[in-house]
Amino acid sequence: MVSHASRTFGLSSLIGFGSLLVLIALLYFVRPQPGVTGSVQVAGSETLRSLVSACAEAFMSLNPKADVVVKGGGSGDGVAALLHGIAEVGMVSRELSQRERDYAASKGIELTAVPLARDGLTVIVNRANQLASLDLDQLKAVFAGRIRNWRELGGADEEITLFVRASGSGTASLFEERVLGGEAYAKIVTALPSNEAIATQVGLRTGAIGYTSLGALRASISVKALALNADAKAAPSEPDADAVRSGRYPLSRTLFLVVPQRTTGTARAFVDFCASDRGRELIRKAGYVGVAQGSE
């Protein structure tokens, strides 16, 4: 006959053994997973530099053993750095050119451009300027030097001062393609290395005009964006989120991260993070327009 004490001891042992199994299982299934490690070099578009830097900080906070270094220089420099093995990820504020794709193919590399955000190449003037909008023909005449005083556009009697992005910039390439259409800039333009620099200089001069990105515009209170229309008959469009997302704003564009198609490891993890929900949140905070999943 088994005593009450023996039954109690047996039950307690069983419960204790079961608890131990549960504890072992929990330790196994919830043990920390190895994080992403290694270094990634990112280079290219000045438009994207501050945004991608914010993504890099967030990515590294989640992956303390990863190191992401972000450098500007312009879209062309970013693609060149990628193709010469200096960077693993390129930042580009325009479509890849056929020349770039052909050169990559000659090195056995197939490039993938991952859409990161939508942006409006924004034409800005000093906040004291009373002008509200321009059509693209007027804008071309201004930057080509055929219109040199604001009174010719219905504004104040003041000479126009021109600020543009330096050569090699994706922003400059887009403006030259869509606005100038092959015509040269006026000889009196001042070329600057970043969108922020243009916003600063336009904010300091009442007669100034330049172009920049939505993100740089958000950081400046001394400039304003002009509404643009494709021609004199079209209604002017502000560079707001809906107009930029739909392409109704005539200088809308997509911003890309560019990688070789077979990219893996930390570089792939970083690009995927930038395109994730957390990345899209950072894009909105930076003043850009998110790209929906599956678009482009």
UniProtKB/TrEMBL annotation:
Lineage of origin: Bacteria, environmental samples
Coiled coil: none
Name under which the protein is recorded: Putative Phosphate-binding protein pstS
Membrane spanning residue stretches: 9-30
PANTHER family reported for this sequence: PERIPLASMIC PHOSPHATE BINDING COMPONENT OF PHOSPHATE ABC TRANSPORTER, PHOSPHATE-BINDING PROTEIN PSTS
Gene3D superfamilies registered for this protein in UniProt: Periplasmic binding protein-like II
Taxonomic source organism: uncultured bacterium lac84
CDD domains linked to this entry: PBP2_phosphate
Keywords, in A-Z order: Membrane, Signal, Transmembrane, Transmembrane helix
Residue ranges annotated for the PBP domain, each copy included: 33-278
